[in-house]
Amino acid sequence: MKKLVALLITFALSSCASYSVTEAEIQDYLDSRAAFERTVGIKGLAYANVKFSDIKVGIGRVADDRVSLDAKSQAKLMISGQRQQEVAIDVSFSAVPYYDQDEGAIFLNDLEVESLELTPDELTSFASKQLLSSVVEMVGQLILTQPVYRLDEEDTKQSMLKTAKPELLIKNHSLVVQM
Fold first, then answer.
1. What residue range is the signal peptide (predicted)?
2. Which residues of the chain have pLDDT under 50?
């Protein structure tokens, strides 16, 4: 009888379990993992060295079903025969969040560039524009392939949700993982 009661309580708790992930929690998660430095292009011909270290998160602010990410990066463009250019890149993306049960993490897909600002805004060559396009694409691919939040297996509630097939909703500028 005790086992049946315990089983019913566990089932009742798991059937209505949910966990809200706030913008601040996602921001903290990304801040601890988002910094990177990469090189794009062909060294000696045309390439960009990119330092990416600042991202700001908004949930349900661009659209009710999307997460927005404002990314800042610095790029050094080196093109054979030209002087080195330093460019600040501010790009805003929006994407649809989804929960990957195998990973126990929230990822983004359906990425869209909402805005792009370059400083200085005038580039001296077609090659510079192509490199910057590659930089924006690289940042976008990083966003799509890395989780924006991973459920904590040490937390009982999150651990229960991780093993179930939860639904992911956006409510009150939070991602809600619920069964």
1. 1-17
2. 4-15
